[in-house]
Design a protein that fits this description.
- The complex is a heterodimer of chains A (229) and B (49).
- Chain A is mainly alpha-helical.
- Chain A is built from 9 helices and 6 strands, in the order ββαααββααββαααα.
- Chain A has a domain of 103 residues.
- In chain A, strands 1-2 form a two-stranded antiparallel sheet. In chain A, strands 3-4 form a two-stranded antiparallel ribbon.
- In chain A, a hairpin with a 2-residue loop joins β3 and β4.
- Chain B has one domain.
- Chain B has 2 helices and no strands.
- The longest helix of chain B is centred in the C-terminal third of the chain and has 22 residues.
- In chain B, α1 packs antiparallel against α2.
- The radius of gyration of chain B is 12 Å and the shape is elongated.
- With 49 residues, chain B is an all-alpha fold.
- Classes of the chains: A mainly alpha (229), B mainly alpha (49).
- Chains A and B meet through α3 and α8 of A and α1 of B.
Chain lengths: 229, 49
């Protein structure tokens, strides 16, 4: 049970009991703040949980549940998911959806259906099927799933016939919310890495001794500058 | 209109960064407030444009 003591210039030194830092770091990744709760650092745990999860779920909400998805196929490389995965369990449904749709299966939690790429009316390909435009269509459809990768992206011949695809429609329908949702979820994932670091190593508090060392280094630099001038 | 999205991000990032540098809440809030003010100040200066 490593315990870190940070001496202070005045008052009591700050003592942080990290318990088992590896386990704490894992818990902090799985659920933001959980590692700190395990270390009995409740205030910080709550702060991390509120900040990171509110950012993540706000981004996921304005992106209509589509901005976090796992796809590493050529032509649809979702590199942002690597950052989003930093948030832990809240990003894991994307992996489940990716595995489910990998071999052409339908995703869980379907949000809406779209006309396929080879639909008879090319101007409606990849568009949402609504009661107004469905014309009693009963053929195969593309299904948008919550946190699922965009469907119908693996038909290059059909894609050349129409000038869009599912991902293009997501951007068009979501306007700037798709980009903003992606940004918020990516930042939430990266912020959780800071929380994981904090659970593993404790806070990066500058002790008086370290501050003194930094100041003496600064003074030496200034002296050298004056000499060269 | 896009700037309104930056403000909550500045607050959250400042708070989380402050939390990695301090252990007690009063110091965390003081540090993050200072960071947020610097950040908003820089944004205001840039918006020279």
């Amino acid at each position: 049970m490593p315990e870190i003591v940070y001496p202070q210039e005045s008052g009591e030194p700050v003592v942080v009991d990290l318990q088992d830092p590896y386990w704490a770091a894992f818990l902090a990744w799985v659920w933001p703040g959980a590692g700190h709760f395990y270390q009995r650092r409740f205030a910080k745990g709550l702060l991390f949980m509120i900040c990171i999860l509110s950012t993540y779920f706000f981004g996921l909400g304005i992106g209509q549940g589509r901005v976090v998805y796992a796809s590493f196929k050529p032509g649809n490389l979702r590199w942002q998911f690597v950052c989003q995965l930093g948030v832990g369990a809240p990003a894991l449904p994307a992996i489940i959806q990716s595995m489910k749709t990998k071999k052409g299966g339908d995703p869980y939690w379907i949000l809406c259906e779209r006309f396929p790429a080879d639909y008879s009316n090319p101007s409606l390909a990849f568009h949402k099927i609504t009661p107004e435009n469905n014309n009693d269509y009963t053929g195969e459809t593309i299904k948008d799933g919550f946190m699922a990768p965009p469907g119908g992206m693996n038909k290059p011949r059909a894609r050349s016939r129409v000038q869009t695809d599912t991902l293009g429609r997501w951007h068009f329908e979501g306007k700037h919310y798709f980009e903003m949702g992606t940004l918020f979820t990516v930042i939430a994932g990266l912020l959780n890495l800071l929380a994981v670091y904090d659970a593993f190593c404790g806070p990066a508090i500058i002790t008086p001794a370290q501050r003194e060392m930094l100041e003496s280094k600064k003074k030496k630099k200034n002296k050298k500058k004056k000499k060269t001038d | 209109p896009q700037i309104w999205y930056a403000l909550p991000l500045i607050v959250v990032v400042s708070l989380v960064y402050g939390a990695t540098r301090h252990e007690n809440l009063r110091e965390i809030f003081a540090h993050s407030l200072r960071n947020a003010i610097w950040c908003v100040g820089f944004m205001a200066i840039i918006f020279l444009i």
